[in-house]
Amino acid sequence: MTGRVEGKMAFVTGAAQGIGEAIAFMLAKEGAKVVVADINESGINDVAKKINNEYPGTAFSVPLDVSSEAQWQEALKQAEDSMGGLNILINNAGIGGGSTVEDTDYETFQNIMKIDTDSVFLGCKYAIPIMKNYSPGSIVNTSSISGLIAGHNMVSYNTAKAGVWMMSKSVALHCARQGYQIRCNSIHPTFINTPILDGWLSGGRGNKPPLERDELLKKLSMQIPLGVVGDTDDVAYAVLYLASDESKFVTGAELKIDGGISAM
Question: 69-76: which pairs have CB atoms within 8 A and are 24 or more residues apart?
């Protein structure tokens, strides 16, 4: 099956690498125009160029600090102008960090909330007034399995991603009540083989010794019932389903991409 989002117009944050880049490629491959947004301007320029080399004229890059209300407003206006509309929003940008509630300083906690949760609020708030004019539409917010399952040393990340999960439900109900024909769902990946794992290599976590990447992947895979760490396309295919009209009766839901962790 091809063309699953043919004619759609998508905006993807955190698209300079990793999961965001994979999502942007997947949506372009399946027929959508895509704006790739990230604070890393050179990164999104490269991603847009690579997408356009394979799918000419489908990708546009827009620099965006997702914690800035003004930049969100401007970026979404640019997206509408570039693509001729907007009906898919992928709030994917996010960061990790912090430790236990006692060991995490307030500045770190606030920054993680700002990037991981506040950004989703801003994206939904300012995209919905545009998207309702190009419905049907779909919002997919990247939470995490850590938004559903807590860890003793992840207070900031757990809190931020749980906020994304519940916010997605509220947004879904609001859009349904208003008759906007915009659905909103959250996705919940576990460990995915992306550059975000690099932070676990140099110095490890919690002052543990550093790990080689193969050693880290093996260690993480032991926590997953399927026995492997996920690939970026595992997430991108899930987003593709939720972004497409195939999921027209799915809203306010959470899709776990976790290799079975949450079933334990």
Answer: 69/122, 69/126, 72/119, 72/122, 72/123, 72/126, 73/126, 75/11, 75/35, 75/37, 76/11, 76/126, 76/127, 76/130
Residue 256: phi and psi, rounded to 5, are -85, 130
Q: What is the mean pLDDT of residues 128-151?
A: 98
State pTM to two decimals.
0.94
Q: Alpha helix locations (H) across the chain? A: 18-29, 41-54, 69-83, 106-113, 119-131, 155-178, 213-221, 232-243
Q: What is the pLDDT of residues 199-256, one digit of tens each?
A: 666 544 555 666 788 888 999 999 999 999 999 999 999 999 999 999 999 999 999 9
Active site residue 157: yes
Contact 23, 90 (CB under 8 A): yes
Q: Are 12 and 35 in contact (CB under 8 A)?
A: yes
Structure tokens at 186: 């959250």
DSSP H stretches of helix in 132-221: 155-178, 213-221
Contact 38, 16 (CB under 8 A): yes
Distance, CA of 197 to CA of 63 (rounded, Å): 24
| The one catalytic residue among 134, 157, 180, 241 | 157
Please give the full DSSP string across 182-194, using - where no structure is assigned.
EEEEEEEE--BSS
Domain covering 9-190+231-256 assigned CATH 3.30.572.10 in the classification: no
At 161-181, the pLDDT tens digits run 999 999 999 999 999 999 999
In the chain, which residues fall in CATH 3.40.50.720?
A: 9-190+231-256
Q: What is the CA radius of gyration of the chain?
A: 18
